[in-house]
Specification:
The complex is a heterodimer of chains A (97) and B (508). Chain A has 97 residues and is mostly helical. Chain A contains three helices and two strands; from the N terminus they run H-H-H-E-E. The two termini of chain B are 41 Å apart. The chains are: A mainly alpha (97), B alpha/beta (508).
Amino acid sequence: MANVIDDETIEYVGILAKLELSDEEKDQAKQDMAKMLDYIDQLNELDTTGVEPMSHIFQVENVFREDEVTNGDMREAVLANAPEEKDGMFVVPQTFE
Amino acid sequence: MRRRKRTVCLWCRRPLSDNGKRGKSMSILDYTAVELSDQIRRGEIKVVDAVEAVFAQIDGREKELNCYVTLQKERALEQAKIVQAKIDAGELSGPLAGVPFAIKDNMCTKGTRTTCSSKILENFVPAYSATAVEKLEAAGAVVIGKTNMDEFAMGSTTETSYYGVTKNPHNAMHVPGGSSGGSAAAVAAGECFAALGSDTGGSIRQPASHCGVVGMKPTYGTVSRYGLIAYGSSLDQIGPLAKDVRDCAAILEVISGRDEKDSTSMSRENGQGTDFISALQEDIQGMRIGIPRDYFGAGLDTEVRDAVLAAAEVLRAKGAVVEEFDLSLVQYAIPTYYTIAAAEASSNLERFDGIKYGYRTAEADNLHAMYKKTRSEGFGAEVKRRIMLGSFVLSSGYYDAYYLKALRVKALIRRAFDAAFAKYDVILGPVAPTTAPKLGESLADPLKMYLGDIYTISANLAGLPGISVPCGTDAAGLPIGVQLLGDCFQEKKILRVAYTYEQAVKRG
């Protein structure tokens, strides 16, 4: 069974992935993804009926703590990495018309 | 009053002068990390001299090898003075005090640029350090720089780095392996005494094998992932790359432990503690070692096979019970791994959006266009490939068929290892199917490159500890590694076997 990734799917995945691919990259992505999915499809040879999906090897539980600040004021150091900042805030491009 | 000089290393009990190559002409760089630290504590070597020796080596080799993305000589020399003062005052006495270290560039280092070898983090300077780095520095290690890697740890060759390829110190026509290729190459080339790497699918063990050093991935949850820039969070672990098994144990002992900043990190006790140095005993009498037949089939280079099986014979001669068995499901590990790792990567890498840190596109007139352009310009081809695949397998309509299916097979793979470890203390096999490929040979066919991970990725899926120990070279002189896998929390068993092997080979 060979997977074929159509234009619509690659557009949709591009939206989910927040990636803007060139036409050339899209063609390559279609081929790469189809090839990878063909390969992944061999998992269907295994009967996993009744097998619980295992996300973590060890049981992971929610960890709760009091909502107290423990790491001090790092605003300057954090904002120093911002591509653009103003008055102690991150600047972003226009969000609404 | 003059103290009588000791003639054996405090930590390894090895004679300090009576050792072939280690005669009077011995250079500082010939010491292992633990030996160096011992020399420093005895006052024979100053920390600053060790740092200078490493930078002299870097001056000679770095131009060709490109192990580092960022070097920090000035800061390292300052640190050296501080550490020296603490050692002199008796405040630092551990086996890593004064040792020059390299850190893979996906671990945050406060005040030092951390790029993940990506354009998108070209100018990122963390406001905090990863817990593993903090622990190393608290133990007196001196961080000299950040090592090159595959971009976001996605790759097996260190060729997907935005900052150029790293070359194998044994032959610069070849890759060092990856993704912790810079760390492995830096240790092998004497451009540091030891390094930290991270291992999501073999990224410590495989470059260690290709560069002829020892590399270890501990049980999932042993080392805090706080400050490690995430790739596949359920698979990622930090671990050491070092000159020998003792250094590996000493480093792991320092960096492991429960950290409240990583809820998946564990406190370990009741015989499963993290006192790894205590495991370095030359005694494997009666230990049961299993060799999976499935690891020796088609695709395995004959020179690699012969070297790995010869290592098994050494262990048999030392008293281990060695036998072959069928592990099963081996071929399904790669599709399972790439589904899960890509899914987690697509989610983890959402945070790189050009707002809070890192690269932002020069031109975009609205927020969403800015996200897309920033990410498209900031990520390399392999990273985009995995984000796309991950987004697809998590998307509505495909989630059950791909992502959940992979998690179910992961459970089956874990069961196969449970069955194996009911019979064996340690599983022995190759690390990689071949020695280090030539530069430029791997990236053209991603799927083929992924197949090279077949022997290492299962340990990540099942959470197991694994170590790669040098076991010979091929006809071209490229290193070969043997891999030892243990059950979860059984690092001490694989360390004991690795140490016994290393000592046996050293004596010839």
